[in-house]
């Protein structure tokens, strides 16, 4: 429908790449809805050009910053202040209903059925399930609601310093008032939550419709060897299930990088796609930097380096060596 849209936000070129992959994933799964990207004024011209090729509407908005250093410091995420810019999405009043999706999400199947839900529908946050995660939510644009949200920010601030604290405070009855506004977790599957309840992921993970790459390490934080299908950089943080990370990079390298190359032309830019020219593997580099005690703690926390030194192949090599 022309008056319904998926909306995302990018305030820098890194998140713009995430938005490009999100937009492509929505297109690949045959969405019938419009695609809208809200972007900060500092997004480079080549990235803006690619976004305009993928999205139906690209709108430059002012970057709002909560300035709430204390609460953001509690979360060790000072970068989340600009997520207040997300509140601009309520000004898109030429649409009757929208689904907001963070730029670090990836669509795995058609999710147009979300538009059957009402405002404010969202999935529980894995860190505190009585709060919803604001990475995916259904809303109805309204200047009145936008004004009330800004007023709420002024009067109450945010309990976490970011948009999620504001939205949970404003839509405070989400946890108790109407179960139909609780989206199933498969519409906003946290890549971190996979490791906190692995049996559930094994049981239900194949039904996932949207994966959300929560945490500091984003898919674009890695470098990727497309030929070897291997990642480098940040692999020990276990921030994403390797299959989902591979899905993201496969789409980015095949569909988005060629578009970026065309727009950048002769200008140099780092795509993150590299050829592995090093004789030392990422696993060996990480292993040499991490003590056995640190590694043990990572395992106990469910953060094994499954793409590097704790991969099946490396464990098998260790066992073979030991048995010999």
Automatic annotation (TrEMBL):
Pathway: Glycan biosynthesis; glycogen biosynthesis. GO terms for biological process: glycogen biosynthetic process. It is an enzyme of class 2 (transferase). The keyword Metal-binding applies. The keyword Transcription does not apply. One of its GO terms (molecular function) is metal ion binding. It holds the Pfam family Glyco_transf_8. InterPro entries: Glyco_trans_8 (IPR002495), GNT1/Glycosyltrans_8 (IPR050587), Nucleotide-diphossugar_trans (IPR029044). Residues 279-291 have a biased composition (Low complexity). Belongs to the glycosyltransferase 8 family. Glycogenin subfamily. Self-glucosylating initiator of glycogen synthesis. It catalyzes the formation of a short alpha (1,4)-glucosyl chain covalently attached via a glucose 1-O-tyrosyl linkage to internal tyrosine residues and these chains act as primers for the elongation reaction catalyzed by glycogen synthase. Glycogenin participates in the glycogen biosynthetic process along with glycogen synthase and glycogen branching enzyme. It catalyzes the formation of a short alpha (1,4)-glucosyl chain covalently attached via a glucose 1-O-tyrosyl linkage to internal tyrosine residues and these chains act as primers for the elongation reaction catalyzed by glycogen synthase. This is glycogenin glucosyltransferase. The gene is GYG1.
């Amino acid at each position: 429908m022309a008056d319904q849209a998926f909306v995302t936000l990018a305030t820098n070129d890194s998140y713009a790449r995430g938005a490009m992959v999100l937009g492509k994933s929505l297109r690949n799964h045959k969405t019938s809805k419009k695609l809208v990207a809200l972007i900060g004024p500092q997004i480079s011209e080549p990235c803006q050009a690619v976004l305009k090729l993928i999205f139906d509407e690209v709108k430059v908005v002012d970057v709002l910053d909560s300035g709430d250093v204390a609460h953001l410091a509690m979360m060790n995420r000072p970068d989340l202040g600009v997520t207040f810019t997300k509140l601009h999405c309520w000004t898109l009043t030429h649409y009757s209903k929208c689904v907001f999706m963070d730029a670090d999400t990836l669509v795995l199947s058609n999710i147009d059925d979300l538009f059957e839900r009402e405002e404010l529908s969202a999935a529980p946050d894995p860190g505190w399930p009585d709060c919803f995660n604001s990475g995916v939510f259904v809303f109805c644009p309204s200047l009145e609601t936008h004004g009330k949200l800004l007023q709420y920010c002024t009067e109450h601030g945010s309990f976490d310093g970011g948009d999620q604290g504001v939205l949970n405070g404003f839509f405070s009855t989400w946890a108790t008032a109407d179960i139909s506004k609780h989206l199933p977790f498969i519409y906003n599957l946290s890549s971190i939550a996979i490791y906190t309840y692995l049996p559930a992921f094994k049981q239900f993970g194949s039904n996932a419709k949207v994966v959300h790459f929560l945490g500091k390490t984003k898919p674009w934080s890695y470098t990727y060897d497309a030929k070897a299908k291997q990642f480098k950089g940040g692999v020990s943080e276990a921030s994403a299930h390797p299959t989902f990370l591979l899905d993201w990079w496969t789409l980015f390298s095949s569909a988005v990088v060629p578009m970026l190359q065309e727009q950048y032309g002769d200008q140099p830019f780092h795509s993150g796609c590299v050829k592995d020219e090093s004789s030392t593997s990422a696993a060996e580099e990480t292993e040499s930097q991490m003590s056995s005690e640190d590694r043990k703690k990572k395992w106990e926390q469910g953060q094994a380096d499954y793409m590097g030194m704790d991969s099946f192949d490396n464990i098998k090599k260790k066992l073979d060596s030991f048995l010999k």
